[in-house]
Amino acid sequence: METESEPYVRLATLRGLHQVVADLNTARSLADTLQTVADGIVTGLGYELSAVNLVRPDGDLVVAAVAGSAGAEALMAGRVGSRVSWERRLAMADQWGSLRFIPYTEGWVLDNDDVPQWHTAGPAPRFPDEWHPMDRLFAPMYTAGTAGGELLGVISVDKPRNGRRPGAWGREALQMYAFQAAIAISNARLRANMQRALVRLEREQQALRASEESFRQAFEYAPSGMAIAEMGGDQHGRLHRTNDALCRLLGRSASQMRRYSFSDLVHPEDIGTLLRTSAEGGRAELRLARRDGTYVWVSLRNSVVADAADGPRFLLTHVEDIEERKRHELQLAHRASHDSLTGLPNSAELRARLSSRLCGRAPGSEPHAAAVAAPYGCLDGFAEVEGVEGPAGPVPYGQEGSYAHGFGSEGGPDHAPDCGPDYAPDEFGCGTHDHAYPGHVHAIAPPEDGPDDGTKGLAVLFCDLDGFKAINDRFGHHTGDAVLIEVARRLSNGVREGDTVARLGGDEFVVLADGLTQADAEDLAVRLRSAILPPIRVDGRAVRVGASFGIGWAGCGMSADEVLHSADQRMYVEKRSRAKAGRRAG
């Protein structure tokens, strides 16, 4: 190229330069583009050797491509020169436009730096512009095409074929080529980044599809119920999707389930539990309605699935059938609070129900509000202190129905009342209070020594069987157990639905009946005694037992043990006062 006189340039030379520039944009990868840049220096610009030094992410420059010499390629390819050494070279070089030239007379100071090079010693030039083997010529490449951009790399060239340092035309051609090479390398990098991004995106999409398929299979074929529900808005809780296990559990098809939310299916008593669980996430145990109208106990666990931008999106709900476990728990709770022989509440349950009705402050020690009927518990389960009132006035014993419920079967240690901050369990698991808690209806005992003034209270009837020991000794425990079972049945049939009949132990029973006057309690004792007297047939044999009843009264300020002891003492008084002839046994 340099044999041609300036400014005359042959058309063939321009065509060759145009071809190598065009080739820059045909490479398919970054590595191909870098090698094309190095090859173009050799084939189109008249140099025997060229190397492309590319800036790495850490700032150092690596020899990314070499052309013109297999030996130079083996020596230099892949080696790294520090950014500091390169900046030193570019700073000390003579500026030929955007090119940098270091003559052999100054380059000796660079012989021992860490920049890869192939230069060898040689004789002094024979004429002023002769190329020396130690001359160095660099063409920096910038991202913006000019020195104002970020350094992209440096093209190193050596051994011009005409043996001369490049003139004006040669320098201009090398500058133009470096400019086009920078564009080609930037484009190749962009394509490579896009290809990597596309590959990464495809892999992420494949992973997402695989994850979605895994979730779908885990959701659909899970052995326990699964549901996806709307979260927030007017459709909060609406079921979008349910799996087969949940549909089978509730007896509804998937299309039918989409008409409901969990609040439509939950037992009315469990709606508060469901709302707390939906708001907070976590776990709850509640009852859901089946298609046949029955309810099944389930363990419900919510997971809030959120979007990083939009916040909570929906609830993923796991529904596990715990009906069998609940049944066992209820059986265990019943066994713990009920007599195994008769099925009646046991001593602990009796004390728990009685203590739940009492507070630690006796009536009269402070002003009391008018008594109002309340369900069982601290506020629950007992009629008015002064008498059970129906819509038309006082209700006689035995006709109270729902007006006088005090000791339903739902009570017990597992149904401890919510009695306020001063509540503390006693040795029986029962509660005591230093004062009456808000809303408490005081239990007031009717006067026991004076005439019956019509005051109604909580009667405690202590029953002890007469002649039972003789039956047990004569006919054995099997007959004795049968007698106890039958007595328990007759006592239970002789009281109101809301009253309690408990077995205290042995042949002792206790009846709790609220809303009774003294006359009502005495009448109840007579009727229960009469119900026990008829013969009891066991294995074809008729046996009889009698019963002695002591009537005590529960009042606030008393403990459960004090109430039972009082009734027990009155029972023994009644037993001693009755003639032995009145006791029938055997």
From TrEMBL:
Domain PAS: 211-293
Keyword line: Coiled coil
InterPro entries per the UniProt record, alphabetical: Biofilm_reg_signaling, GAF, GAF-like_dom_sf, GGDEF_dom, Nucleotide_cyclase, PAC, PAS, PAS-assoc_C
CDD domains from the UniProt entry: GGDEF, PAS
Coiled coil (residue ranges): 187-214
Transmembrane annotation, as ranges: none
Record-annotated GGDEF domain positions: 456-586
Domain PAC: 282-334
Name this polypeptide is given: Diguanylate cyclase
